[in-house]
Structures are given as C-alpha cells and as structure tokens.
Amino acid sequence: RPRVGTFGAGRAALPEPVLRQAAEEMLDWRGSGMSVMEMSHRGRDFMSIHAEAQADLRDLLAIPASHKLLFMQGGAIAENAIVPMNMFRGRASADYVETGAWSTRSIAEARRYGHVNVAASSADTKFTSIPPRDRWKLDPAAAYVHICSNETIGGVQYQTVPDVGEVPLVADVSSDILSRPLDVSRFGLLYGGAQKNIGPAGLTIVIVRDDLLGQAHPYTPDAFNYTLQAEADSMLNTPPTYAIYIAGLVFKWLKAQGGLAAMAARNEAKARLLYDALDASALYSCPVARDCRSLMNVPFHLKDPALDATFLKEAEARGLAQLKGHRVVGGMRASIYNAMPIEGVQALVDHL
Ligand SMILES: *Cc1c(COP(=O)(O)O)cnc(C)c1O
C-alpha cells in the first residue's frame, strides 16, 4: 500500500527520503554496528549526530551567536511551565497575548508561577483574528511578552514579528517553526515541540538569548533549567537520541530543498491553492480573517455540517487522512506542514 499523506495536525508527515534513510540505517548506523537508539549519548557517534543536528538547525534559522540552541524534552505543554520558571527573573508579571487554544493554555499554566497580564485577546472574534498591535496593553516592566506564532487549532498565524520594544518577546513556534525564515534576533526565547513541522515527538526546541540566562527560579528542576542545559550542551539528562537523529535528517532534507526561503515559497503556494479553492466555493468556508490565515493549519467548514461525516469518509477513501477538525472548532482542518507536497494539497482541492 502506498504511503498516505497525512493532513493531521498533531504529528507531521515526514519526508519519504528521510524515512528511507532511517530504515537503511536502522540496524547499523554507518558501520557503527548498532542502531542510533542503542548508542551511548556520550559516545563519539551520537555526539557527532547531535552536533550536526544543532549546526544544521542554527544554519537553517540563521540563529545569531547571541542565542543558545537547546534540545530538550517535555513538549510545548511542559514549556508553558518551564518558560515562566526561567523567564520571570524576579519580575512581578508577564504579558500574554491570547489568540486561541494554545495561548489560552499557556496563560493558564503561567498563572501558577506569577502574575499574568493578558495584554490583548481575540476571544471576542472566537479566535479568528489577531488583535491589532496598537491595541495591546503592554506593561513596560513585564518579564516578557508571550505570543503563539501559529495557533494550530484555530489556524491563525502572525504574518510579521510584533514590535514589543525592550521587553523580551517569547513565542511558542511549535506548529510553524521552519515553515519560513524567521528573524531570531527579534526574540528573547522561541520554543516548540518537534512533532508538528519537524518530525518525531520527543524533542523540544528552545532558542534563548544569552543575557536572559542565569536567573531561573530556585525551584526550577535541573532538567528544565535553561542555564544548566546550556552549560551541559543539552545533555544534563539523557536527550531523546532517536528523535534528534530523525530531526537531523529532516534538517538536511530542508537544506537540500533550498532552505527556509524555498520552503516559504512552497508553503505559500500550497496555502494559496487551498484558500483560493475554499473562498471560491459555495459549499465551504474558512472562518479565519484573511490577514492572519495560517500557512500551516487550514480550518474549514462545510456550509451544511450534516455533510461533514460523508466528506471525511470519502476523503479517507481517497487517501486524504486525518482531515477532521479539532473538536473545539469543528468542521475540517487540513494541516499542510513542510513535508506535505503540493500534490497532496491538489488532491484535497480536487476532492472539495
Ligand atoms: C501541539 C502544540 C502544543 C502542545 O505541544 P505538546 O508537544 O503536546 O506539549 C503547544 N503549542 C502549540 C502551538 C501546538 O501546536
């Protein structure tokens, strides 16, 4: 049976060449006589895999020397707690911008660790928009400003990096990291789970500016302390070795595709194809405001929701998998991450 492209939001499709290479190297990684999963994480072979993955990611994102790159575990939901533990830095409150389910969840978790000021919210539009920057009520003394760059459930994505002045900008980039070039120097901290737009679950990416380190709250667990992890080259605890290996293969694949500018061009073409078809259709609609539609997650509704089940069943039969919308939004959602080829999007458009 041929590989079925998945439109699922939770775990990304992986590029087929990456899976083939991993299969070839499964029993014996390049003459080492063992699988990557069996290697010592401090041995020469794994250390080279780890270092190369870090170097390739630094290259792809053009991460400046001012920022540390950490490979951690726990995913973005764990980061919702780890960020305030490391980033409050003795300050009284942090600003959060609420644009959907994931930023709402970040806010709820951060409230356990300090005062959270919701500087702006698009709850009044049912999270189908991003509050205009000139209406954000930012606190100049805030420890940081937190945004979710792409709301995976609602399909709302920032089109530019908001200017928040001197206060460090923190972003959950779980579902759009590596989808397009990003000016990392504009951020104090970026974090995201790898399983949306990179590869396997288990790896969490953290990129943090040097000057924000060294002030974690004393109750911060060592494994979640950015400063200690930076000092230990992300090996304070045993890292998720196999996930790092696969992510490293994805980074090489992305470089071979032409890097993030090339991915952005492809992702824009894929998204345009789908949004144009939805907008032109009398049967479907997309609820998200046009100026913040996500390139990665496209929610859409049938004007007659009674037809959803039939649509999904027929889509599945055509190999268009995991198109069911998130339960809080309903309808359908097509996640068109990096590894989804335009042919897959065309197949979906043909099915509309
Ligand atoms: C999936 C997702 C999360 C949760 O990630 P976990 O890895 O399951 O902890 C958080 N934020 C965003 C934007 C997501 O897409």
Write a structural description.
This protein is an alpha/beta fold and 352 residues long. Helices cover 32% and strands 15% of the residues. It is built from nine helices and twelve strands. It has helices spanning 16-24, 44-61, 75-87, 101-110, 226-231, 241-256, 259-280, 308-317, 342-351, and strands spanning 67-72, 93-98, 115-121, 145-148, 150-151, 156-157, 169-172, 189-193, 204-209, 284-285, 297-302, 332-335. The strands form three sheets. The chain has a seven-stranded mixed beta sheet with strand order 1-9-8-7-4-2-3. A three-stranded antiparallel beta sheet has the order 10-11-12, with helices on one face. A two-stranded antiparallel ribbon has the order 5-6. Helix 4 links the parallel strand 2 and strand 3 (115-121). Helix 1 (16-24) crosses helix 6. The longest helix is centred in the last third of the chain and has 22 residues, at 259-280. The mean pLDDT is 95. It binds pyridoxal-5'-phosphate.
Short recap of the structure:
This protein has helices at residues 16-24, 44-61, 75-87, 101-110, 226-231, 241-256, 259-280, 308-317, 342-351; strands at 67-72, 93-98, 115-121, 145-148, 150-151, 156-157, 169-172, 189-193, 204-209, 284-285, 297-302, 332-335.
